[in-house]
Amino acid sequence: MQPEQIAANKCFGGMQLRYQHHSDILQCPMHFSVFLPSKAQSEKVPLLYWLSGLTCTDENFVHKAGAQRYAERHGVAVVAPDTSPRGEAVPDDPDGAYDFGLGAGFYLNATAQPWAQHYRMYDYIVQELPALMAAHFAVDCGRSGIFGHSMGGHGALSIALKNPENYHSVSAFAPISSPMHCPWGQKALGNYLGGDRDSWRQYDSTELLGRAAKKLPILVDQGDADQFLHEQLQPQRLTAAAQAANYPLQLRMQAGYDHSYFFIASFIGEHIAFHAELLADTATG
């Protein structure tokens, strides 16, 4: 089904667009935002998927990260989906908490009720959204990268590690490194997947690093003044897993930076350049 355009703004020579569509996988209406550089007017361009964190929609990154300037410079498109299914029939956290349910899909496929019908963000990101992008936009899905922040950093890392044939670059800002070992992740995995902790391993990046079929270089930025650093994010677990697996991970601790979009905006240009270089190598190699 053709997505419906609901916003369009020229930005740094390219176009920042917003769409809504019905998701067959999530069984609800969904929104996504996409920046198309001016280069997309004449040829297909590489595509980056941005996955946002808890409480975000598709618009937080678009409005706050300042990514468009760099996406235009490097000639790459950036699509930002929503962070969960939405709608009247979609269940939410019974207590209305911010860290589960609406705005907190955790980029997995739920198997426990009542979440299993709608909360299938993993399949949405890996299957439905790429098919939609390929069918309706001037993007080369064969040259794709993925990155994200916090919950979305977890999503980007775990999805890339499980699908190395789909992505040629991956990076993250302040990712939830090991959902199995932090309160946010334990709540989400326990509710979405049930009590069998073995089933949680398929969405834990520290577990996936050790059995990755292809070793994509990973760039991670983490602020050392992040209020969630020690309890929720635990980057030392990611570093230890990478060292044990001899995996090419570059973790940069950034002095004085917190968990906000001010942090993301400070380094988003370097991340987009990191992806653009790897995707350019894909095109020539």
Structure description:
By secondary structure, the chain is an alpha/beta fold. The protein has one domain (4-280): Rossmann fold, CATH 3.40.50. Helix content is 35%, strand content 24%. The chain is built from ten helices and nine strands. It has helices at residues 59-64, 68-74, 121-136, 151-162, 183-193, 197-200, 205-209, 229-233, 235-245, 261-284, and strands at residues 4-11, 14-23, 28-36, 45-51, 77-81, 139-149, 169-173, 218-223, 249-254. It has a nine-stranded mixed β-sheet with strand order 1-2-3-5-4-6-7-8-9, with helices on both faces. Strand 1 and strand 2 form a beta hairpin. Helix 2 runs parallel beside helix 10 (261-284). The longest helix has 24 residues, at 261-284. The model has no long low-confidence stretch (mean pLDDT 96).
CA-based shape: globular
Number of domains: 1
Quote the CATH topology: Rossmann fold
| Beta strands, count | 9
Which CATH architecture would you pick? 3-Layer(aba) Sandwich
Strand content: 15-25%
Helix content: 25-40%
Determine the number of helices (DSSP H or I, runs of at least 4 residues): 10
Enumerate the strands of the largest sheet in spatial order, edge to edge or round the barrel: 1-2-3-5-4-6-7-8-9
> What string, H for helix and E for strand, traces the elements in order?
EEEEHHEHEHEHHHEHHEH
The top-level CATH class is Alpha Beta
Please name the fourth-level CATH homologous superfamily: Alpha/Beta hydrolase fold, catalytic domain
